[in-house]
Amino acid sequence: MQQIDFNSFFYDISSDERGFIIALDAVLSSENRQATIVPFASNYSPEENFKNEGSRLIDVSHRNSDLDLFKMRFYTNKDGSKECIEGQFFVYKFGINPNLYLAITLESRDFVNRALLPFIDQHRTRFYLTFLNQDKLKTFLNNYREGCGYTDLNILRVSLISRYANEKKETIIQSVSWLGLPMETAFTYANENNGWFKSLTFEALRRDKKLAQITIYRNGVIKTDRDMIGINKYLIESICSLIRDNLTLFSKRSRRENELAVKPLTIQFGQNQFSDVGENAKFIDKMNELSDASVSVMHGNPYIFLTIIDYVDGSTFDIWVLKANELIIVPQLKSTVNSLKRVISHIFDRYAEGTIQEFTAEVLL
Amino acid sequence: MTDLETLIQKKQKEIYNEIDDYTDSVYAILGFCNLWSYDKPGKNKPNVKVFQGRRLTPPTNLNLTEATSAVTPDLGIVVDDKNAILGEIKKNFPKDDSNDRQKEVFEQLKQYDQQLLGWPTPTETVDSHELTLLVHQLTSVYAKDYFSIHNQEVNFNHPFCIVSFTRVDQGEHYFLFQLIDGHPGCSMKINETRLHFGVPIPMRAILEAYSKSKIYDAMPPLAYLLNLMWENVFTPLAAENPKFQKLKTNSKLDIQIDVDDILKVLQDSFSFQCWHKDYPARQPLIPKREWIEKACQFFVDSQIGTWLDYNEELQVHYHKLEKTLDHFIRLVAEARSNKEYQPLMFDLNTGKRGNN
Q: Domain range holding A98?
């Protein structure tokens, strides 16, 4: 495969945001490449985040104020022989927010899926990625289509998570579909299948002309072969803004950070999700699937009261269902942004999506 | 299924019920006090003081020391530093008076039926106080019947009433409080009409309070306490160790902790201490040290912990349990069952079945 000269690319581009995006756009237009963009927030510097750990060897190749170039080598065993996957990626400080970054690479899918993304996932206590519920995803894509003046976004492929329920059991089914549908129809299809998109690949069309092929994932990762400028303006900025909003919402929730006061959050379902008591058991079943965690049922019927330990970092939460359309999360003594996000995205992924809101106490008469 | 396993499962159900009773009692304390103290979300009325487990004493008692004559009602409400209510929660009021169990409840209330000192007021006194017995709706009729029959005998000098509570579900979950008998005094009168028809307090309204006050001055079920310690004391401590994140489910991580540090976390974070910030005197520290020592001893007996310094410092063999509460309920149920089951086992020396 044709190699990108990352070093000269690094020196050619200016470090301001616009210059960087324009340079990337130009590379994608001239080379037959795919860019992968990982928007994330972190309290750590890129150098602290991307350091040698385990079987991944990482070096900083170059550095300037807002842009670092890293080289990662990942050794793995394949068919009994040692294999090395190697690639380079940029870490770019995004906007004026001190904690927002983009990790960007033009390397192969192999490097992205086997080296870079697993590294980020393994160190998820340091990296905060977002989650796009169906409403947000649809809004962002609509804004992108309208903002860039595209006639339609033709959905090529989706990874759909569907909930199928009978009286006793609820099953989560992940399916991959090739749709060839207009965007609006694809979202209707997901809705009808009681599902949500884990990823979605589409063509940006202006009349019948295909201008870019883009994949957007529920965690905010984007892959594209063109149109970095439009994607940056209408997708990446929106995703970063969502990350920023969630950081604000999820930060400083622990009782230790609030002089032992509690700062609950709610998930509003907009419908009477728990109107049937049988729903309680389904919800508890789904929560029991939360990996690397303890889920204890203090009370399961008619109201729900669970306590959760997140074994990734030791955060603890109480979860309550006291109204049919609402779930309440009470962070206890320790609660981190990543842990709160992990619990909420598990609920969205495995059970049902809702809107996250600040808890407001009842007004009594 | 073996007899022992059947017994263990029966005990597990009992423990779940005990935990439910305990949390309901906490909710009843919070909900009932809320009727007087609530002003607006997150704010209490400035002229109302509430307390739990406060030590009140008769002014002088020639026959008894203060320690033995002191009373510690489950709840207290003082309005305008003048009028007060003392309440006792008995979720499961005895259904009959065998072994004087019903009588004992009223005898306990009778101890509150005297002039008392130690109120959270500038003079430590109030002009008047009245008594309330809070019982679950399902057993309230037994309390009412007992009081009707033994009214003359009990003969309260202070106004007394019985209030029932129960959870109700009307799309939202509530605690319903209802006046079922007695003669409310001036403090209760504020809410008498509402209580007559039944006042529903949404559980949601007292959720924040419950999240901070999970233990009152009655010892919680052991499994509940073990779970609280595991989740909120041991886990954050273990998580400080760099090995925590990658700790496998079958591996252990030893952590050391002083009993006093466990106490401090639970007292600061999960008791009613937050109610008493402005009047901490006479408020016993909850949980009591002996409860925590007992819980630690259980960890030791279950080989989850080791005393580094008996009753002072514990080493916990921390591991990632899948369902902590279920785990501890099972352990407590096993311990209880083994004790009970012993007499049924064969004596190896005599070959006889039984405990002789």
A: 6-122
Per-residue pLDDT of A3-20, as tens digits, reads 667 666 666 666 666 778
Of A218, A241, A271, the one marking the end of a domain is A218
What does the alpha-carbon distance between residue B48 and residue A220 come to, in Å, rounded to a whole number? 51
Average pLDDT, chain B: 92
Residues A266 and A214 occupy one common structural domain = no
d(CA A201, CA A223): 9
Mutation target among B323, B327, B330 for the A interface, most CBs of A within 10 A: B323
When divided into structural domains, chain A yields a total of 3
The pTM (predicted TM-score) of the whole model is: 0.89
* Residue of A275, A288, A361 with shortest CB distance to B208: A361
Assigned domain for A235 exists: no
Q: Kindly state the average pLDDT of the residues B318-344.
A: 91
Same domain, A139 and A118: no
Same domain flag for A106 and A142 = no
Contact A323 B204 (CB under 8 A): yes
- Token pair belonging to A260: 């032992």
Instruction: Looking at the structure, tell me whether residues A141 and A112 fall in a common domain.
Output: no
Do A265 and A188 share a structural domain? no
Chain A contact for B264 (CB, 8 A cutoff): no
What is the full DSSP assignment across A10-30?
HHHS-SSHHHHHHHHHHHHHH
3-state secondary structure of B116: coil
- Residue B155 exposure: Cα atoms within 13 Å on the Cβ side: 2
Reported ipTM: the value is: 0.92
Half-sphere exposure of B8 (CA within 13 A, CB side): 16
